[in-house]
Design a protein that fits this description.
Blueprint lengths: L1 E2 L6 H13 L5 E5 L14 H12 L5 E3 L12 H11 L6 E5 H4 L8 H7 L1 E6 L11 H4 L7 E5 L7 H9 L10 H10 L5 H6 L12
Parallel strand pairs: 1-2, 2-3, 4-5, 5-6
C-alpha cells in the first residue's frame, strides 16, 4: 500500500484490511513515500517521521509490515521504482498496489505508467458516494485482464490526512481518527504545528489534548 501517510489514519488501516480480505492477500506492505513527486509544492513531514508513524500504526497486525524502500531512496519517489524493488525482494509474488482511487485516476501521468500494469494489479480505494470518473482509462485498459484495476468503497475513508493535519495544527484532538500511538507521536514531535508557532517558540497542547 503506497501513500504519503502524513499522518497515517484509521481509514488507511481499514482499507488495507478490507483489500487483504477481499483478495486473500498473505501480507500488506505499507510503503511510505520518500520524496513524493506529486506533492512537491506542499510541505510534507520528514520521511522518517512518516515511516515511524506507519510502523506504530501497523504494529499490532501480523499481516501488516512497513517497507523503507522509498524512505531510503535518494531521489524522487515513483511507483514504478517501488514496484521494481518489491519484485526484486519478493520474486514470484503476485503484487497488488493499493492506493487512493483519486490518485489512481491520474495513473496515465505516472512515470513509466505502461510498465506499471506488468508489475502489479491495482486496487483503488474510495469513500462511499464519491463519484470518480475513470472513463479516460478505458482505452488504455482494453485487452488487459478484468482485474488489472479494481475500485472498492471503504466507509472509513471519510477520514483524510489533510483533515487530521488541519485539526492538529489548530490544537484540536485527532483521537480515534489516527491510532493512539500516532496521536502521541504527533504530539511528542510537534508535527503539523504552524510555522509561525515554531518560529516564536510557542506550541499548543497538540493533537491529543489532555485526555481522549
Amino acid at each position: 500500500m503506497g501513500g504519503t501517510f502524513d499522518p497515517i489514519h484509521h481509514g488507511h488501516l481499514v482499507a488495507a484490511s478490507e483489500v487483504a480480505h477481499r483478495f486473500d492477500l498473505d501480507e500488506v506492505i505499507f510503503v511510505p513515500t520518500g520524496q513524493p513527486w506529486q506533492k512537491s509544492g506542499r510541505r510534507v513531514s520528514p520521511a522518517e517521521d512518516r515511516y515511524l508513524m506507519t510502523v506504530i500504526a501497523t504494529a499490532s497486525n501480523p499481516r501488516f509490515s512497513v517497507s523503507r524502500a522509498d524512505v531510503d531512496r535518494s531521489k524522487m519517489t515513483y511507483t514504478v521504482d517501488t514496484l521494481r524493488d518489491l519484485h526484486a525482494q519478493h520474486p514470484g509474488a503476485e503484487l497488488y498496489f493499493i492506493t487512493g482511487a483519486d490518485a489512481l485516476a491520474s495513473i496515465l501521468t505516472w512515470q513509466d505508467w505502461a510498465e506499471l500494469f506488468e508489475l502489479a494489479k491495482f486496487v483503488g480505494v474510495n469513500r462511499p458516494g464519491y463519484e470518480l470518473n475513470i472513463d479516460h482509462l478505458a482505452d488504455h485498459l482494453r485487452g488487459m485482464p478484468d482485474d488489472a484495476v479494481t475500485m472498492i468503497e471503504v466507509p472509513a475513508l471519510a477520514i483524510s490526512s489533510s483533515e487530521c493535519r488541519r485539526r492538529a495544527a489548530e490544537g484540536r484532538p485527532v483521537w480515534y481518527l489516527v491510532p493512539d500511538g500516532v496521536v502521541q507521536y504527533i504530539s511528542k514531535r510537534h508535527l503539523y504545528v504552524p510555522a509561525q508557532a515554531e518560529g516564536n517558540g510557542s506550541v499548543n497542547r497538540g493533537p491529543g489534548g489532555t485526555t481522549p
